[in-house]
Design brief:
Layout (H helix, E strand, L loop, with lengths): L4 E8 L5 E2 L3 H5 L10 H8 L3 E2 L13 H11 L13 E5 L10 H7 L8 E3 L7 H14 L5 E8 L2 H4 L5 H9 L8 H4 L8 E8 L9 E10 L8 E2 L2 E3 L5 E3 L5 H6 L6 E2 L1 H23 L8 E4 L7 H10 L13 H4 L6 H10 L9 E8 L4 E9 L1
Parallel strand pairs: 4-5, 4-6, 13-14
Antiparallel strand pairs: 1-7, 1-8, 2-3, 6-7, 8-15, 9-12, 10-11, 14-15
Helix pairs in contact: 3-4, 10-11
Keywords: Acyltransferase, Transferase
Pfam families: ACP_syn_III_C (PF08541)
Protein name: Beta-ketoacyl-[acyl-carrier-protein] synthase III C-terminal domain-containing protein
Length: 380
Amino acid sequence: MSEAYITRAAKFLPNESVPNEEMEQYLGFINGKPSKSKSIVLRNNRIKSRYYAYTRDGEPTHTNAEMAALAVKGLFASDPEKIKNVDLLSCGTSSPDQIMPSHGVMIHGWLPETGMIEVVSPSGVCCAGMHALKYAYMSIKLKDKKMAVAAASERFSPSLRAGQFEEEVQQLIRLEQNPYVSFDKDFLRWMLSDGAGAFLIEGEPNPNGPSLKIEWIEGCSFANEEEACMYMGAHKQEDGTLKSYKDFSNEEILEKSIFSIKQDVKLLSEKIVKLGFSNLKSILLEKGVTMDDVDYFLPHISSYFFESKIEDTLNENGIPVPKEKWFTNLASAGNVGAASIYMMVEEIFNCGLLKKGEKILLAVPESSRFSYMFCLLTVC
């Protein structure tokens, strides 16, 4: 088997960053009124700015696939001809531009210079980007491919705009009910951001700069034990099962905002940290790694609310991580779902401060039905 190295990392963020006080100028006011939950959610998540792939007037500026392609092109900014050597494109997202064709082939459509290559599109939510990375990693390890690109991207913003909820609000008014969308829908409007990240994975380290050797990537799912926590294109029923958008009429889809992103906040708070981060201890034991070996800990978190909860869980399980080893860019980039971990790695990869031999532990929880991905990298 070959080794596998991240030899380059790039990102793409659309337009200018949007500060908290300007969010509703982009997202709009539901029923013409400011959100009741905005200040509460922002106070807990402590996000200061984020990016949207459209203008204040609601005009789209980029598609999801286009942003991913721009991140991929960023990998080859210094030598554009090298992109012709890519033989695998592995792309993850939870917000594709369409149900079909696949997200990956739509990105490939923006990259004609790559020629005819293999393309894969892992589905999922936050873990989708890590699944894309693992496919690329395994392909290089097996010497099946020579130069792979893994990418992750999100374009949540169209699903967050006030117009997506207008029919639901009008239906509530007709029924003489409180004309506010429920907290499980409004909650995520103040959390999510648009953008893309990409890695180049090769069988040899970069001779002209830093590389990150991928030591291992491990994942686990608790879907056999837990019901869905975050979902889109479905309605959660009293028994915890999801009713598909396919089983609603067109009128019901609009009236119930079925295609809005929803979060069971109570279930999220109870489960997201305990399940996956308790399991991390057994993964580290199996791999022969201790937290003393780790120099940088990069947890994907949707809110700083979970930072102390993760810290407490790691301490309870005997794998504490000193706070000086933690790194996240949530406050400045927002929660970019599957792309968040790519953006964190890109920032630390290109900062110029990494030293050979240092180890980086990635942790990506996914609340949709409680899946987790962990990865260990070594600087070389």
